[in-house]
């Protein structure tokens, strides 16, 4: 595996790697200290707001291939954190992802996960790992909307049941690091009714909510405006939910949410 190229924007740096069998995957360095790494060549979940899964899943990355995305850059960049949030669904490649997780931990790195939560049977185990954050991409509180946004991520009710069951045995301190990711899409999931239900779920699970910006360079959804985004934030806060706001890195056309692709043409 080798590093092929780098592209820079004022916010992000995107790296393309060539794998032994010729496939190309990507990582992003952002926030001045974090490397977002890929876990699969493609993704089977197929979210319509993300380019990573547009050709489905081609294969899993090995633990070494996940680790090497960091190792090939570590002498050149001040990487302190790893976000397992690039191309692929980490729970669908659980064995290699967990092996890579421990390789990163050995290097003294903080590691966070971003997952659709599918397959749900792996959630309890990932929750017990010494991670520095686990964001479960909920994006919808109604099953039909979630199926549209995460077409192959299983059922919402199964996910919520798995979260309820596994979080009950997780310490309060650990639960503080768990968050429901919610990508606000205008007219799709941002009604007051939906946000009220989101608040109710977050409170009943005793986890926070991460409100995510939609990256409008990726697909044709309508973006929730800044005013509505702030309204959503205040509504959740007024209901006693801990809320984190998305960073501007995620909206960047280069390296932002949903922009990483397999086999980029160089
Ligand atoms: S957002 Fe994540 S789960 Fe959805 S297609 Fe992209 S990589 Fe896969």
What does this structure look like?
By secondary structure, the chain is an alpha/beta fold. It has one domain (2-251): Aldolase class I (TIM Barrel, Alpha-Beta Barrel). The protein is 29% helix and 22% strand. The protein is built from eight helices and twelve strands. It has helices at residues 63-71, 94-106, 123-128, 143-149, 156-167, 172-175, 192-205, 226-238; strands at residues 2-8, 13-18, 24-30, 34-37, 40-42, 57-60, 81-84, 110-115, 134-137, 178-183, 208-212, 243-245. A ten-stranded mixed beta sheet has the order 1-2-3-4-7-8-9-10-11-12, with helices on one face. Strands 5-6 form a two-stranded antiparallel sheet. Helix 2 (94-106) links the parallel strand 7 and strand 8 (110-115). The longest helix has 14 residues, at 192-205. The model has no long low-confidence stretch (mean pLDDT 94). The structure holds iron/sulfur cluster. Residues 43, 45-47, 50, 52-53, 87-89, 116, 258 line the site of iron/sulfur cluster (SF4).
Which features characterize this protein?
266 residues, alpha/beta, TIM Barrel, ten-stranded mixed sheet
Number of E-type strands: 12
Mean pLDDT across residues: 94
Strand content: 15-25%
Give the N-to-C terminal Cα separation: 16 Å
TL;DR?
Keywords: 4Fe-4S, Iron, Iron-sulfur, Metal-binding, Methyltransferase, S-adenosyl-L-methionine, Transferase. This protein is of the alpha/beta class.
List strands and helices in order, with pairings.
Blueprint: E1 2-8, E2 13-18, E3 24-30, E4 34-37, E5 40-42, E6 57-60, H1 63-71, E7 81-84, H2 94-106, E8 110-115, H3 123-128, E9 134-137, H4 143-149, H5 156-167, H6 172-175, E10 178-183, H7 192-205, E11 208-212, H8 226-238, E12 243-245
Parallel strand pairs: 4-7, 7-8, 8-9, 9-10, 10-11, 11-12
Antiparallel strand pairs: 1-2, 2-3, 3-4, 5-6
Helix pairs in contact: 1-2
Bound molecules: iron/sulfur cluster.
Iron/sulfur cluster (SF4) binds at residues 43, 45-47, 50, 52-53, 87-89, 116, 258.
